[in-house]
Amino acid sequence: MSRIQYSDFTSKPAPSRWSPFIERLVVAGLAALFICIIFAIGRLWSYKNTGGTTGRIPLNWPVKSSVARSVERSTLLMFAHPKCPCTRASLAELREFMSKSGESIDAFVLFVKPDGVGLDWNSSGLWESAAGITGVRAMEDLGGVESALFGCETSGHVLLFDKDGIRRFSGGITAARGHEGRNSGLDGLASTCVGLAGIDHSPVFGCPLIDPRPPQ
Amino acid sequence: MKFNISTNNGTSAEARSEELFQGELESVYCRRSLVFSRLMIVQWIFAIGLAIFYSPLGWEGKVSHTHLHVYFAVFIGAALTLPAVVLAHFRPSWIVTRHTIAASQMLWSGLLIHLTGGRIETHFHVFGSLAYIAYYRDWTLLLTATVTVSVEHLLRGLTWPESVYGVPNPEWWRFLEHAFWVVFEDVVLLFGIRENIREMREHADRQTSVELLNTSIEMKVTERTRELEASREQYRSLIESTQSIPWKWDLRSQRFTYVGPYAGTVLGCSSQEWLDPDFIKKRVSPDDERMLLARLSGSYVNSRTESEFRLRRNDGTWAWFRTVGENGNISSSEQLCGLLFDVTEVRHMAGELQQAQKLEAVGRLAAGVAHEINTPVQFVSDSVHFVRDAVKDMFGLLDKLQIVQHSVQAHTDATEAAALAAETAENADLPYLTDNVPKALDRALDGLDRVATIVRSMKEFAHPDSTQKVSVDLNRAIQSTLTIARNEYKYVADVVTCYGEIPQVLCYAGELNQAILNIIVNAAHAVESVVKGTGNKGKIRIATVVDGDHVMISVSDTGCGIPEEIKMRVFDPFFTTKEVGRGTGQGLAIARSVIVEKHGGKLTFESKIGVGTEFFIHIPMNQVPHEVEVVVR
Fold this sequence. Notes:
The complex is a heterodimer of chains A (216) and B (633). Chain A has 216 residues and is an alpha/beta fold. Chain A has 2 domains: 19-49; 74-202, Glutaredoxin. Chain A has 5 helices and 6 strands, in the order αβαβαβαββαβ. In chain A, strands 3-2-1-4-5-6 form a 6-stranded mixed β-sheet. Chain B has 633 residues and is α+β, with helices and mostly antiparallel strands. Chain B folds into 4 domains: 13-211, no CATH class; 242-342, Beta-Lactamase (2-Layer Sandwich), CATH 3.30.450; 345-462; 465-632, Histidine kinase-like ATPase, C-terminal domain (Heat Shock Protein 90), CATH 3.30.565. Chain B has helices at 13-54, 68-90, 95-115, 124-134, 139-159, 161-165, 174-240, 262-267, 271-274, 279-283, 286-295, 344-409, 415-428, 430-461, 474-484, 486-489, 509-531, 587-598, and strands spanning 57-60, 63-66, 244-250, 255-259, 304-312, 318-326, 335-342, 470-472, 493-498, 505-507, 538-547, 550-557, 602-608, 612-620, 631-632. Chain B has a 6-stranded mixed β-sheet with strand order 9-11-12-14-13-15. In chain B, helix 4 packs parallel to helix 7 and helix 15 packs across helix 17 (509-531). The longest helix of chain B is centred in the first third of the chain and has 67 residues, at 174-240. Chain B is rod-shaped. Chains A and B meet through helix 1 of A and helix 1, strand 1, helix 2, helix 3 and helix 5 of B.
């Protein structure tokens, strides 16, 4: 009897292979592509991490404001664009904040309604979300009058005034555009609210509340 | 399990096991890459859907534009998905493919975290992806994945710490805190990978041993098959060289499917013609066709059958064949097979042998027949001599009486002539002659009648051989046979006949007579062996009776009986227990051949030592083709 030949075993067909040159080319292409991806992700970070603009923020409560400021406790204002997707995160952080510190604060979310927009401008879900937060009242800011008075130009901008109408905090309460999670703005707001030392301003991440300025 | 078997080409079992292991590993790589390529596409679609659902538009006052998230989802998603999909399609097991997929998958986690607004649930994508990558069973991929996610985390922590740690100035070790959970999962997964690899190696070892066994068995089977084939070929050559014709018969199509090469030679036609479905009709004798087709119909399952039939040669002459076929052990349920022998010459020889035996029987009986004839001839002769003397005396007296008549007519003295006539009459003893001459003539006639009977019996016994069956009165045939065999038994046995009412039977008369004679002579010899020297006589009883559709002739004797050990051999040609010169061993063999093969009857016997033997001959009344059957009871 002949001896066993291992060549008798059925072997799987060898997978197709590329030439070393092609392989090197593919690896180089992949490396280039990953560099591009890194840059693209960097661009994403940059976009998300770039704060919006702010106007001149008054140190005291503007007398012309039609918002009813509390004289017994602090008043919190958040200016919001009703269609800004990033503001969803700001409202989520506000809900978190109000659940902890809301009893000592009167809070308003003012949705800016520019002139000339339809009646359904505020029907984006953010209004209901804001109105659903305990201790928060949702209001319309017709024509952006209030936001202009308070110098807020970016959705998600939060202002905190004490019972004397002195501004204690100004800024955003998210770490980035539409980014939920702990952040310095929220920490600063919480510290200020309870009278502790903390930052009193932070960048605001959100959509601009006002129309783009025409080029100069 | 380890192997240490070297093979002809130097490959070891370990190498084969390694080959199997690597093959299986490559198969795992291919499957996982395929799964990941599908997952990448699903993730891409999901990311675009997520961006469109949550942040379709960016706004500046009342002016909107497509949100950058949508662009990021489309383009970064494409950059992460398409290379992985293309590589998974063309080079699924390539190490670059695997690492590309691992890195892409971890970057997908980062992208999805951003697209979902940093939701804590999305961070679990990192851990799910690591576990999924571990299915590759390649620990280096975990390294790539971990490095990718760590670098992404580290860079983001350095450039944008709030998005990672929630505070703008985290402690330096916060990175380690986050990395710990990834490393923790890596460690768990590494154990899993190691265990999987170990199982795969064991599986490869087991498969190697099974392959070894299978190959060994396969080779043995191949070798045995080759030997079997050689053996079959040897048998085939052997059989075909013996002028026997092996055949196979298909029961469905009712035709030969194979015949040996000698088949063509013996008929003067091609072997291929045997395979013709109409071969039986074309070649087999009409007398034998029905019997042969019955044999080949498969109705004789699990039995061994023999039959003889005639096939027409190309030159128009007939050739006799004996076929021995079996169905059961050597045949499938759908075919018969067997051997065919050309017995034309054998049958010719058998005919000559039978004729010789017949002559031998006649010769042996000649003395007895002569003796039987001699007795009546003797007293016929005496009677004729007596009548001749009487006639001579009568003629002498008649001469004297004529002299007396002439004297009386011539008116001369007739006294002297009358006295002479009276004296002559006195001498002739006319009363005596008157009384005895008729008796002598009667005796002569009786003797002549007895001679005529013997001669007629001889004539009937030696019935001219005919190829055609004739209608025969078996009782008369038996009586004739008894007549000519009388000298064989008359001194040792009394014969008792008991003829029944039986119809005439179609048979080969001469050959059947010979068969009966052989049995009767055997009976006489058996009785003689018992009564010899005792002065006593035995008994032979012959009876005929109708038994169903057969006529049965029984011949019993009070002889010595047949010993058990030779019962199976009594019909064998040249088998005899008689002394040399008294028997040739052909008697019962020819009787069997005549009764069974030529008449399709049965020849059986019962025997008991010291009591006697009884043979039973069954001859079918309605003659049909015969079958071979020998029954010993």
